[in-house]
């Protein structure tokens, strides 16, 4: 998702669109905009003026935008509440009546619009029913909404019949009506009355505006400004803005007023509201030729009586117009410099660990645009960033990352263009952003010859290939065995290309230079990195640094899912000890401070050596990635997390994440095969409801089950390592583990033999989500079922696509499992198991086998005929629309059903592997790093309120000299017995616990 001004400079100028629209309006349709925040609630039964931070969408990018940062909101259960706004109808005529509101998928948001003229209701219609045809963000046209990444859910809805309105006043009334379940809160951004009868708005086709009718709302915005000309000649003021609003990234400049203002005189009041894009804070850079400084005022009325900004500006400085300035009392226009100065002053009261000293070993990146004003860099320094600052600031000098140099020629040209001293400061060469690994040309005869040699080198025979090696053809499709091996060959060829490019980078910039490319796992299987790309390329040394990004706050995933992503990163770098570089995005609005702190500390607790905020500020100089000036708590979270990490790095920088005793197989066979399973959308209960969903959707439920089983185990405070089938077959990884979990329909046959021997020696195996009834060639295979003591299975799926916070809360159970007298509502998949020599311990509602266990030698093997992690997670979810940003809607799943927990934890409960860290309360995740300086414990609170008096037990290699809470900046009372330290600590969001030797 990261992008640069350069890459988006071709975006359409929103100012140009506004000018075109204004001209068109003169001879075109009559339009009236009734902003939601300007409605007056007539009772206390529901409607309230609501800030976007308390709605279902508050973001710096994407397709969820709320004009003026406010709306009219009402709870889902409200009925009969009325709010009113009187507008002026410019001319008699027939008007289309649109409601623009937030509509995350699958819920009802019923509300009624009434228009009253001369005491009579002349229009009445109920809006917001799920499945109603609507216009959506990104020029979407659908009944219900389906995007692969989740949601961008601004909706505009209108019935076809037109309202006959007379010129003059009209009372528009919003009324809450009975709202059938599943019901969501109503958030009405604005109401549109237009004499244009079509299903369209300005910028609809071709796509030129992120959210419906916002160009029309911009044109209706009223915000006035004036300045005093302090130059010696008549002049006009140049006002420029950047482009934040998708896809209008080009920015614009206007000159005000129409005629030059005499020297020493005040200008007239000019309405700059339409020039601003108040779906975000608007930075206005103001330049007055010939003037050093000059006064500028902002007001809500053309007479200047309601002043919302009284500034003294230097020419070329920026005034920051808050998104909510038109209605939110106390919201005022300030200069960017004022905001920076206020943050600097506030930071003196923020907790500053490590005696105020910045980290030296863990690099913290955060882009602050170049500025003539040193205050911007002083703020970056004060926050704790230790890279990419002017030379006068303390920092890590070798920190430069040239971006997007993905070929040997590009790297050589870059090196040739740089002075020797500059080359010494290069730390990483970026091969690209959000890239795939590419693909060879399968039709090239040279690759066919290479493939034949590769098959020979691997020792593959006709038994492996299904044909004689000499007849094996490099194939994308067709024979499944050849497709499998062709893909392996393709990947290794790509790894070799990247390895060669890495060698060129080292040749040009020195042996210690790193190479990497940012990975973005926001495809349909959200936050699941493909095994070839996230693991195998690092095993093959294709790149020397792992790099990925955290945009979990933008997709309908549980916040804790970052733990899975970092586990994948550690799985990838374990072979060759590559460092981890992770984007932890602080975007505000969007990322909430508590979750930002959790994620920054979690990255460090997983061994990341680079934590990157991408772009931070000033907001007026970036496109869609920034921290808005009006979110000081985000800046505080950054400051405190970085300085806390400066204390933690003394142990972290020389240590390693403690290996777990539990492993989960992130299987290449399941990843490869499931990513190619396409299902008719009519067979999916959610995609089938959505007109804009593709005709076929990719099944993801097995990959999603791996993630959710992982989280179930982490919530039980078990350390979990991710391993691949290659680790089992080629690296003898099973000897390191007591318990192994597997989820997927496909498994590499080579792993089954090793698993069998491991179970006989005492290991405990748990298989679910298809229990590997197919091999890597997508062919039925009895290997793993036989190990589990199963003869056969009969399988049913109830869906193909599942996003944890979007579809899962609404997913109906496929059946019920009875286990030890308890009942588990199973979702997504049902397998009826036919035991051979396994014991049935759980049954479906019809008495058939759902869960079995086989005792084999000294070990056990469990088979579970459903998606146990998914079924467990569902019990902790709320049936509520998923909100993209905002302070009140994001939550951590809690209160998981005990029977569902038991089903997911059968294997760990049977073996009881050693746990590095345990607490006396649920919802705490912990990571341990051990090193020569001691042990670092990172504690994450995945509940929804601070936890007080948490009792923590840590197994440590040696008795620590003390125990210290970094957040509390205090030594903790502790006890030591039997290789375990115990102490009590309060956990707000996240904390480091230092246990030095």
Walk me through this protein's architecture.
It is a single chain. With 997 residues, this protein is an alpha+beta fold. The protein has five domains: 5-219, Jelly Rolls; 224-332; 357-380 and 391-445 and 458-652, Alpha-Beta Barrel (TIM Barrel), CATH 3.20.20; 663-911, Class I glutamine amidotransferase (GATase) domain (Rossmann fold, 3-Layer(aba) Sandwich); 917-996, Golgi alpha-mannosidase II (Immunoglobulin-like, Sandwich). α4 (336-347) packs parallel to α5, α16 (701-715) crosses α20 (868-874) and α17 (725-731) packs across α18. The model is unreliable at 1-26 (pLDDT under 50).
SSE order and pairing:
Blueprint lengths: L4 H4 L5 H14 L3 E5 L4 E2 L6 E4 L18 E5 L7 E8 L3 E10 L8 E7 L2 E8 L6 E3 L3 E3 L11 E4 L5 E3 L2 E9 L9 E9 L19 H6 L4 E4 L7 E7 L10 E10 L8 E2 L10 E6 L5 E7 L7 E8 L2 E5 L12 E2 H12 L15 E6 L5 H10 L24 H10 L2 H5 L3 E6 L11 H14 L3 H4 L14 H30 L4 E5 L12 H9 L6 E5 L11 H12 L6 E5 L8 H13 L4 E8 L14 H21 L3 E2 L4 E4 L2 H7 L3 E3 L15 E3 L2 H15 L4 E4 L1 H7 L7 E5 L2 E2 L1 H12 L3 E5 L5 E2 L7 H5 L2 E8 L17 E5 L2 E5 L2 E7 L3 E5 L5 E8 L2 E6 L3 H7 L23 H7 L1 H6 L5 E3 L4 E8 L2 E8 L5 E9 L8 E2 L4 E2 L2 E4 L2 E8 L2 E7 L1
Parallel strand pairs: 24-29, 25-26, 27-28, 28-29, 31-34, 31-35, 35-37, 36-38, 37-45
Antiparallel strand pairs: 1-14, 2-5, 3-4, 4-14, 5-13, 6-11, 6-12, 6-14, 7-8, 7-13, 9-10, 9-11, 15-18, 15-20, 16-17, 16-19, 19-22, 20-21, 22-23, 30-47, 32-33, 39-42, 40-41, 40-43, 43-44, 44-45, 46-49, 47-48, 48-54, 49-53, 50-51, 50-54, 52-53
Helix pairs in contact: 4-5, 6-10, 11-12, 13-14, 16-20, 17-18, 20-21
């Amino acid at each position: 998702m990261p992008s640069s001004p350069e890459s988006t400079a071709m975006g359409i100028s929103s100012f140009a669109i506004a000018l075109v629209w204004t001209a068109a309006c003169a001879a075109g349709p009559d339009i009236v905009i009734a902003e939601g925040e300007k409605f007056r609630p007539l009772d206390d039964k529901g409607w309230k003026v609501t800030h976007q931070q308390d709605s279902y969408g508050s973001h710096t990018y994407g397709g969820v935008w709320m004009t003026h940062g406010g709306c009219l909101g009402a709870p889902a259960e409200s009925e009969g509440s009325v709010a009113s706004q009187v507008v002026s109808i410019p001319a008699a005529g027939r008007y289309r009546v649109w409601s623009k509101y937030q509509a995350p998928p699958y819920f009802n948001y019923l509300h009624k619009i009434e228009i009253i003229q001369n005491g009579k209701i002349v229009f009445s219609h109920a809006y917001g029913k799920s499945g109603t045809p609507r216009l959506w963000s990104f020029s979407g046209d659908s009944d219900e909404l389906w995007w692969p990444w989740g949601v961008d859910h601004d909706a505009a809805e209108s019935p076809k019949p037109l309202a006959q309105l007379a010129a003059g006043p009209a009372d528009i009334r919003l009324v809450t009506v009975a709202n059938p379940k599943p019901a969501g809160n109503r958030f009405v951004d604005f109401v549109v009355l237009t004499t244009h009868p079509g299903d369209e708005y300005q910028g609809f086709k071709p796509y030129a505006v992120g959210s419906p009718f916002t160009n029309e709302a911009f044109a209706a915005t009223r915000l006035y400004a004036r300045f005093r000309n302090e130059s010696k000649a008549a002049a006009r003021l140049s006002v420029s803005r950047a482009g934040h609003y998708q896809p209008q990234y080009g920015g614009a400049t206007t000159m005000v007023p129409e005629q030059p203002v005499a020297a020493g005189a005040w200008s007239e009041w000019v309405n700059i509201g339409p020039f601003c894009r108040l779906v975000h804070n608007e930075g206005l850079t103001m330049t007055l030729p010939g003037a050093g400084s000059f006064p500028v005022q902002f007001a809500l009325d053309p007479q200047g009586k309601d002043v919302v900004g009284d500034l003294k500006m230097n020419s070329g400085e920026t005034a920051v117009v808050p998104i909510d300035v038109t209605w939110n009392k106390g919201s005022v226009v300030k200069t960017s410099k004022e905001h920076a100065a206020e943050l600097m002053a506030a930071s003196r009261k923020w907790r500053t660990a490590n005696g105020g000293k910045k980290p030296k070993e863990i690099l913290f990146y955060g882009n602050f645009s170049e500025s003539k004003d040193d205050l911007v860099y002083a703020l970056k320094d004060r926050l704790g960033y230790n890279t990419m600052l002017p030379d006068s600031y303390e920092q890590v000098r070798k920190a430069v990352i040239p971006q997007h140099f993905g070929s040997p020629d590009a790297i050589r040209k870059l090196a040739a263009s740089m002075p020797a001293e500059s080359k010494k400061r290069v730390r990483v060469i970026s091969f690209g952003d959000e890239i795939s690994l590419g693909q060879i040309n399968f039709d090239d005869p040279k690759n066919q010859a290479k493939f034949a040699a590769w098959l020979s080198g691997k020792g593959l025979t006709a038994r492996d290939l299904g044909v004689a090696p000499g007849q094996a053809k490099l194939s994308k499709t067709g024979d499944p065995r050849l497709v499998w091996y062709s893909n392996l060959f393709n990947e290794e060829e790509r790894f070799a290309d990247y390895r060669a490019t890495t060698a060129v980078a080292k040749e040009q910039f020195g042996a210690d230079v790193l190479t990497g490319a940012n990975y973005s796992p926001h495809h349909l299987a959200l936050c699941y990195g493909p095994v070839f790309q996230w693991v195998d390329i690092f095993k093959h040394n294709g790149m020397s640094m792992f790099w990925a990004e955290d945009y979990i706050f933008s997709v309908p995933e549980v916040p804790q899912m970052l733990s899975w992503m970092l586990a994948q990163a550690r799985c990838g770098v374990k072979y060759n000890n590559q460092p981890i570089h992770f984007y932890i995005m602080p975007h505000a609005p969007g990322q909430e401070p508590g979750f930002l702190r959790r994620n920054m500390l979690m990255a460090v607790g997983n061994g990341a050596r680079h934590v990157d905020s991408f772009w931070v500020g000033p907001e007026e100089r970036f496109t869609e990635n920034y921290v808005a000036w009006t979110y000081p708590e985000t800046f505080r979270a950054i400051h405190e997390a970085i300085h806390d990490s400066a204390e933690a790095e003394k142990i972290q920088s020389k240590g390693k994440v403690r290996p777990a005793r539990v492993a989960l197989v992130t299987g290449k066979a399941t990843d490869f095969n499931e990513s190619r399973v396409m299902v008719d959308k009519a067979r999916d209960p959610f995609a089938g409801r959505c007109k804009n969903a593709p005709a076929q959707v990719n099944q993801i439920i097995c990959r999603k089950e791996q993630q959710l089983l992982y989280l179930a185990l982490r919530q039980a405070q078990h350390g979990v390592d991710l391993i691949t089938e290659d680790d089992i077959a080629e690296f003898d990884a099973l000897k390191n583990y007591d318990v192994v979990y597997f989820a997927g329909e496909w498994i590499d046959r080579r792993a089954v033999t090793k698993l069998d021997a491991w179970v006989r020696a005492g290991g405990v195996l748990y298989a679910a989500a298809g229990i590997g009834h197919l091999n890597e060639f997508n062919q039925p295979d009895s290997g793993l079922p036989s190990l589990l003591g199963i003869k056969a299975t009969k399988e049913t799926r109830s869906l193909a696509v599942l996003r944890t916070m979007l579809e899962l809360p609404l997913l109906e159970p496929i059946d019920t499992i009875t286990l030890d007298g308890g009942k588990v509502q199973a979702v997504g998949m049902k397998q009826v198991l036919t035991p051979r020599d396994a014991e049935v311990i759980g049954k479906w509602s019809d008495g058939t086998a759902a869960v079995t266990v086989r005792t084999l030698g000294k070990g056990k093997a469990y088979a579970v005929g459903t998606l146990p992690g998914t079924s467990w997670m569902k019990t902790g979810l709320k049936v509520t629309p998923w909100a993209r940003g905002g302070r009140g809607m994001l939550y951590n799943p809690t209160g998981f059903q005990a029977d569902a927990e038991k089903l997911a934890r059968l294997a760990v409960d049977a073996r009881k592997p050693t746990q590095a860290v345990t607490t006396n309360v649920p919802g705490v995740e912990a990571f341990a790093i051990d090193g020569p300086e001691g042990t670092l414990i990172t504690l994450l609170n995945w509940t929804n309120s601070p936890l007080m008096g948490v009792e923590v037990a840590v197994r440590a290699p040696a008795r620590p000299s003390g125990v210290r809470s970094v957040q509390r900046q205090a030594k903790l009372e502790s006890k030591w017995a039997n290789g375990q330290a115990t102490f009590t600590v309060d956990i707000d969001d996240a904390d480091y616990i230092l246990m030095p030797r």
